[in-house]
Specification:
The chain has helices at about 15-35, 55-70, 80-95, 125-145, 160-175, 195-205, 215-225, 245-250, 280-295, 300-325, 330-340; strands spanning about 1-10, 45-50, 75-80, 100, 120, 150-160, 180-185, 210, 235, 260-265, 375-380, 380-385. The chain is built from 11 helices and 12 strands. It is globular, with a radius of gyration of 21 Å. It has a 5-stranded parallel β-sheet, sandwiched between helices. The chain has a 4-stranded parallel β-sheet with strand order 7-6-8-9, sandwiched between helices. Strands 10-11-12 form a 3-stranded antiparallel β-sheet, covered by helices on one side. Helix 1 (about 15-35) links the parallel strand 1 and strand 2.
């Protein structure tokens, strides 16, 4: 017997390099793994049907419709961009089809929408924005020699649901910590020039910059900030382009030392002994396959873990229960099974547990046990610096003197 899963990611356009392609790689590897082991429950083979959103919202919506109504997939999974996930989730739910979001993080995807067939094991954007600010607040006095209330912070973001949502959480948490927000501004990812934004930032003189963007826009901003002499004590990004260390190094070499990103944990950085039995072996499987199929060396982006781990939750936990307890893998059986998911902390390759907010909750369908972490580029590779329970290195704050963006 076969189960058809539509896997929708961006194989072309700017989002591909921003992490979408790595999510697809993770998803493909876990599907291959299950099929090599006889499929779900050892007898249901997965038929993977790919869609390419091409980094465009209208194409993403059309591809979702094609996968559901032409290819007749049983499950739609994936979706990198929140700007794609917001309209797709609404349409899929109206059609009473099942949507499993592995990646897109904006709160707006599920918040106050009372979706019945959409589930997201991935941490939501509000957590990204809050975690990065709490991290800076926790090290402000010790490393930046200022109390949080004396810190000047700026927040810039791409103006879609992803950037706006993370930035709103940055601002809310910064105010809660008593920080002085000297500038908050959005920009279009299509903007050909961000020098006027750099000029405003220079005038505002922030100690810390919180930035949420995708890929080309981050490179453009950093290049112009470098040219115009923007100086900071700390630079903190939030996922997407900030987590693609190989791409950042292509553009800026070792100048990215000290940069931060916030994302769910890259599984290979976690101590497998802290996870439930058998989970660490799945991480080893992911690394082995990634090295054999895609890249022999270099950093493995957190996005690979998102595709691999979050789809594993569906294949390993939700689908078996839907079939055995709820009579199959139709949308209602899958939704009922997902609502019963109860994985404790340490029960997934990314360290978090899985339990979805119930119907009636403003965040219904969101995983309430998911959490991101703060990574930092230290000695050329990503280390976990926050929260302390998962730390692999002490943070490098302020930016090293060698950085062209460092305040001296």
């Amino acid at each position: 017997q076969t189960i058809k899963i539509g896997i929708l990611f961006d194989h072309s356009g700017p989002f591909a390099a921003g992490g979408s392609l790595n999510c697809w790689r993770g998803a493909k590897m876990i599907i291959d793994y299950f099929n090599e082991h006889g499929g779900v429950l050892g007898k249901y083979k997965i038929v993977q049907v790919d869609g390419d959103s091409q980094s465009k919202a209208d194409v993403a919506i059309n591809e979702a419709e094609r996968l559901l109504n032409v290819e007749k997939v049983d499950i739609l999974a994936g979706i990198y961009s929140s700007a794609h996930a917001v309209p797709i989730a609404e349409r899929v739910d109206k059609q009473k089809k099942f949507l499993w979001i592995t990646t897109a993080i904006a709160d707006a995807v599920v918040k106050d929408r009372h979706l019945k067939y959409t589930f997201r094991p991935q941490p939501n954007g509000g957590l990204f924005g809050a975690y990065s600010v709490r991290y800076i607040a926790g090290y402000a006095q010790e490393r930046l020699k200022k109390a949080p209330k004396d810190l000047r912070v700026a927040i810039i973001h791409e103006d879609g649901p992803y950037g706006s949502g993370v930035a709103a959480a940055n601002e809310e948490e910064a105010k809660a910590q008593g920080m002085h927000v000297v500038l908050k501004e959005g920009y279009s990812i299509q903007a050909p020039d961000l020098s006027s934004l750099v000029t405003k930032l220079r005038a505002a003189r922030p100690d810390v910059l919180f930035h949420t963007g995708y890929a080309p826009d981050i490179t453009l901003f950093l290049r112009q900030a470098k040219e115009q002499g923007l100086r900071l004590k700390a630079y903190v990004g939030h996922g997407a382009g900030h987590s693609q260390l190989d791409k950042l190094k292509e553009a800026f070499g070792n100048d990215v030392e000290g940069f931060h990103t916030v994302d769910p944990i890259a599984s290979q950085l976690l101590d497998p002994k802290k996870l439930k039995p058998g989970v660490g072996e799945m991480t080893a499987e992911m690394v082995k396959r990634f090295r054999a199929q895609f890249e022999k060396e270099g950093p493995i982006a957190p996005h690979v873990s998102m595709g691999f781990n979050n789809l594993w939750v569906l294949l390993n936990d939700v689908l078996p229960r839907a079939i055995q307890k709820h009579g199959g893998y139709g949308p209602d059986a899958l939704a009922a099974a997902a609502r019963e998911t109860d994985i404790p902390e340490g029960g997934t390759m990314q360290g978090y547990g899985v339990k979805f907010y119930p119907p009636g909750d403003p965040m219904a369908g969101q995983n309430e046990r998911a959490f991101p972490a703060v990574f930092q580029v230290i000695k050329g590779k990503f280390e976990l610096v926050y929260p302390k329970t998962v730390q692999t290195a002490n943070p490098l704050l302020p930016l090293p003197a060698s950085s062209p963006w460092a305040a001296h």
